[in-house]
Amino acid sequence: IFYFLFKNINYQLLMVELKFAVVNNYSFSVSMELDLGDTSVRDMSLPVVWSRDVAREKSNFLVEALTNVEVEEKSTRGVTPIDINEVSEFLSSSSSNALFAYKTLFPKSANITVNITKHQDTVVLVTSIDKCKFDVTVAEDGQYLHKVTMSVRNTQRQYLRTKLPKKFMLWSTVVGGHAIKPAIDAEGQVMIPLEKSHGDSKQKQFVVELIYLIQGPPMKSNGKLNLEFAIIDIPINILLVTLYLPNTYSYRNFDGTVRKTQYFSSNQMIVSQAHEMKSRALESNLMSNCQAMQTNPMMYDSCNEELEMDDDDVYVASKTKVGVVPVLVEFPQVGRQFLFEKLLINSEPQNITVSYNRNNNGSCSVL
Questions:
Q1: Count of CB atoms within 10 A of residue 268's CB?
Q2: Alpha-carbon distances, residue 6 vs 9, 15, 16, 353 (angstroms)
Q3: Are the CB atoms for 239 and 341 separated by under 8 Å?
């Protein structure tokens, strides 16, 4: 195809020449653009295309907004407004956000004038945490072990940033079932690389797991605990806290920003990354063993001996491992359990305070 463009004062002429003669119907598309000079334009006449030396030409026009602009119809001439579903199949199939539709038999005399207004873009949420669960085990010597498990959706962000309490020691970080090594930025915040939630219309969730240790003052015969939690820079829909306190104390006056509850409002269980990683290690080991058994059937009995059950009733490979299996930290859940819950958190600091007294008989009570 050869084409020639001739410019005139009132219009531009596009001449198309084909290499070979066309017997049946022939279609071709022309793409063009017009520089508006500004993001907002008043009394804009939309460009119209027509064919020369044609007695009757059935034309459809479709106005579509591809960006965040507001299009207002100012005036029309020589066209008839129609429903968007009445336009040609070619136009309807190539449009996703149609605003106005028109038809005419004489496109040369058609005119459509609109006002185009570009509004300021706003920031939208590209990352969210549907559920965030803190498990905290408190030891009498003042050590607080925190396990944070988050169910995350992410489309664009590269890192999750979290501000941990003072004197923290990071033990483990797992993202999507893979142990990763986080970084620390100039402000001292821990940076955890995130996955992307692409793949389906519901934006697949993945789990981020963080375990860290806080060194606080040792517990005395009586006093008050002040538990501070990591500040996460992503909005959280539901925050759940399970607190494990020593059995040799009695507790009263629970206070803070998170509400104490007898039970969680719904089943908010998040799959542990440790279980997922152990399952992957088992699957990898079994695949390797099965491939070996195809060439040496005598290995069948020895393969069964390479599996054992751990304390969490999860099969893991104990002898033969394929590749490097990351170190997993088992979180101890020891002591009296207390539950807390809060909805809708946007990077605010959270804390729980509780008064305690040592029991002389070594039992635990809650006042």
A1: 15
A2: 10, 8, 12, 80
A3: yes
Burial 281-314 (b: 16+ CB within 10 A, else e): beeebbebbeeeeeeeeeeeeebeeebeeeeeeb
- Determine how β-strand 307-309 pairs with β-strand 222-228: unpaired
> CA-to-CA distance for 62 and 60, rounded, in angstroms?
7
Can you tell me the distance from the alpha carbon of 160 to that of 138, in angstroms, rounded to the nearest whole number?
26
Type of residue numbered 79: V
CB 263 within 8 A of CB 366: no
Calpha distance 14→2 (Å, rounded): 10
**Mean pLDDT computed over 192-196:** 91
Residue range 217-246: average pLDDT? Answer: 94
In the chain, which ranges are continuous DSSP H helix?
89-93, 273-295, 300-304
DSSP 334-351: -SEEEEEEEEEE-S---E
Task: Provide CB contacts within 8 A for 220, sequence distance 6+.
Answer: 358
What's the CA angle centered on 139, arms 231 and 256, to 5 degrees? 40
Question: Which helix (DSSP H) or strand (DSSP E) does residue 247 occupy?
Answer: none
Q: How confident is the model at residue 18 (pLDDT cuts 50, 70, 90)?
A: confident
| pLDDT tens digits along 129-139 | 999 999 999 99
What are residue 337's DSSP bridge partners? 244
Q: How far is CA 84 from CA 34, 96, 112, in A?
A: 24, 11, 16
d(CA 99, CA 63): 6
pLDDT in tens, 90-117: 788 877 788 899 999 888 889 999 999 9
Q: Are 132 and 238 in contact (CB under 8 A)?
A: yes
pTM higher than 0.90 for the full model?
no
